[in-house]
């Protein structure tokens, strides 16, 4: 059953009826279009957090309002987090969530069709790109939106201690272990779980942490040939991103035939969160123009 959350930004929170890791209940939030006419499409959103931390409702409300006021629905989805759930199982859960939306979920949400875009920030951008590549022709998204995302887990800087993260106080092994839950989770206070991501980047074992007891699998990287099959794609990143190298976005722009890249002059990874007035509002205005291009 859908439950209205508030009046300022109307939203419905619900449980996703799919099989998930044992004991885990995945949820979603739907923000309907504020236009009286049928929605132009639904933006299916995945949060960032290195696949380790974060929550589905992390998109600042000002951007939620911009998108819904211009006629787009916004669906934000939980997914299991690593390391409690290894990456292959995370991917399977997301695949089932998207399949639920395109098969029956759009009707549950009161939509006329399952026309959708896949959107994500950081790790969520990786997930959006991954599922757009692997979507069947019948449920291919209208487009992809990736804010400071990446297409490969084989990026060299992901596998060595990060100079940027080493500048922070070191996270002890005991603290790191204490942050790992005994059961699968889909969200957690970012301030706490961020330390787990920080520890992994300080040690250079982030990607290893995602796969648990199995070796990292190159099949989770997206190739140049796969990226060439993507629909129209909107890309945005900071030109001095200290977390995900900007070359990732530049290569995506080079390899995705119909892509638009917006670089901002910033040293902030998630510039749209920390520099809303300076860069965020402008980039999201450009995103809406891209969405409305047809």
UniProtKB/TrEMBL annotation:
Provide the leader sequence positions: none
Name of the protein? Alpha/beta hydrolase
The lineage's top-level taxon is Bacteria
Has keyword Oxidoreductase? no
* UniProt GO MF annotations: hydrolase activity
Q: Where is each Alpha/beta hydrolase fold-3 domain found?
A: 43-271
Q: Which residues form a coiled coil?
A: none
Key words of the record: Hydrolase
